Amino acid sequence: MHTETHTGLESPKGNWWKPAHKAEKVWVGIAFAWCMVLFAMMPLWHWKGGQNPSGIRRRVEPQAYAQRTEEFIRQYTVGEDRGVPIVAPPPGADVYLMAMAFQWRPILKLQKGAQYTLHLSALDVNHGFSLFPINVNFQVVPGYDYGLRVTPNASGDFRIICNEFCGIGHHLMVGRVIVEDAPAGTVADRGGDR
Ligand SMILES: [Cu+2]
Q1: CA of residue 77 to ligand 1 center, whole Å
Q2: How far is ligand 1, taken at its centre, from the CA of residue 150, in Å?
Q3: Which is nearest to 156 in space by CA: 127, 140, 189, 132?
Q4: Of 1, 54, 130, 143, whose CA is between 20 and 30 Å from 151?
Q5: What is the dihedral sign for C-alpha 22, 25, 31, 33?
Q6: For residue 74, what are the CA distances in angstroms to 70, 88, 158?
Q7: What contacts 105, CB < 8 A, 6 or more positions away?
Q8: How far is CA 17 from the centre of its chain?
Q9: Spatial separation of the C-alpha atoms in residues 159 and 108, rounded to whole Å
Q10: CA-based Rg of the chain, rounded to a whole angstrom?
Q11: 107 C-alpha to center of ligand 1: Å?
Q12: What pLDDT does residue 118 have?
């Protein structure tokens, strides 16, 4: 049984005071160099990586954002699915989507190949916008209006899944985006710029 006690007043046993082996020095050198690479990557990615959201971002009061979204819904509603309005804005429009515990409002009906400015904000806590089964992920933060320039490049019936744990009903927080093929002969039909 190990009964030895240690105190900070005594030097530890061993040969820690001897110079490090060459291999250890090499490893410390490699680790340090790699730390510097990762450190440099942060600013590099910020400025050169194309990782920043396209479009606009600004502060907004959740109440004001909710009002703007309801106005958008009134303007372009074309139907309803289980109490949630289905909204079909024209190509080029500003599209408003709000996240709240525990739903996405409204359901969006967009045209393939048309460009939109998709505004995202939350009314209460952080939510996460992830478009299933496509790899699109975005943080939806209360108090901030993110206007992303998006051009749907595939038609279909997609689900928005909240990927930021937001409370007891988080797993029920599923929204919907419907993308339809553009009517033949329209600008959107010839493809967007992205
Ligand atoms: Cu959520």
Answers
A1: 24
A2: 22
A3: 132
A4: 143
A5: negative
A6: 6, 11, 23
A7: 69, 73, 84, 85, 97, 98, 175
A8: 50
A9: 11
A10: 26
A11: 16
A12: 94
* Gap between the Cα atoms of 104 and 97, Å rounded: 7
Question: How far apart (Å, rounded) are the C-alpha atoms in residues 124 and 101?
Answer: 7
Interval between CA 151 and ligand 1 midpoint (Å)? 24
Report the distance separating Cα 148 and Cα 57, nearest Å: 8
Distance (angstroms) between ligand 1 centre and the Cα of 132 equals 15
**CA 173 to ligand 1 centroid distance, Å:** 6
Q: How far is the CA of 86 from the centre of ligand 1 (A)?
A: 20
Please give the biggest Cα pair distance in the chain. Answer: 85
CA–CA separation, 49 and 41 (whole Å):
9
Q: Which residues pair with 159 in a beta bridge?
A: 132, 176
φ, ψ for residue 193 (rounded to 5)?
A: -90, 5
97, 105 contact by CB (below 8 A): yes
One digit per residue, pLDDT tens: the chain, 194 residues? 667 777 888 877 777 788 889 999 999 999 999 999 999 998 888 888 766 666 778 899 999 999 999 999 999 999 999 999 999 999 999 999 999 999 999 999 999 999 999 999 999 999 999 998 888 889 999 999 999 989 999 999 999 999 999 999 999 999 999 999 977 766 555 544 44
